[in-house]
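Complex record, two chains
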Amino acid sequence: EAQVTQNPRYLITVTGKKLTVTCSQNMNHEYMSWYRQDPGLGLRQIYYSMNVEVTDKGDVPEGYKVSRKEKRNFPLILESPSPNQTSLYFCASSLSSSSPLHFGNGTRLTVT
Amino acid sequence: SQKIEQNSEALNIQEGKTATLTCNYTNYSPAYLQWYRQDPGRGPVFLLLIRENEKEKRKERLKVTFDTTLKQSLFHITASQPADSATYLCALPLAGSYQLTFGKGTKLSVIP
């Protein structure tokens, strides 16, 4: 089954403790992206990747890192999480940057 | 600056009627526009893509129009059903960018 898999689904952590949210797609998609979704603010793009080893900042990249060493994986790294990064995070992929996005089921992160 | 607006945060409609949702944008001319459906706590699911040279696109009970003069897209669900209740998001690429930007969405409730 074609899918985007994020892990974990839920994560509670404390300020400053580094964490990684994994994202994997099995559709051989070139384009991958991370969004965060907050009430009243909608979906905002954090980072995106056009292909392996090619990443770029979205609208809200501060406090996040990404890497794209393999085509299928696009992990999101929070080196020193803060409470304002408490949010619902979505990974998405598509065949190309202009193709429809396939979203994962989300990771609900709480930073205390 | 570029802006996307979805006409209302919430729309209530009687079962069987046609629901019409609006997406307006300013200060750019996107090559295409996409519509997604999002259920609570889940990732958005792609519904339809319409290109700038297309006036209208249909898929089963869904219809999307794209008026580049008015800078507006309309999303219609005919013969609406309670199962259509969800938040609907429009998304457009930013000018000169590979970023897909989302509107804040309209929450549709179909009342039996």
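Note: The mean pLDDT of chain A is 96.
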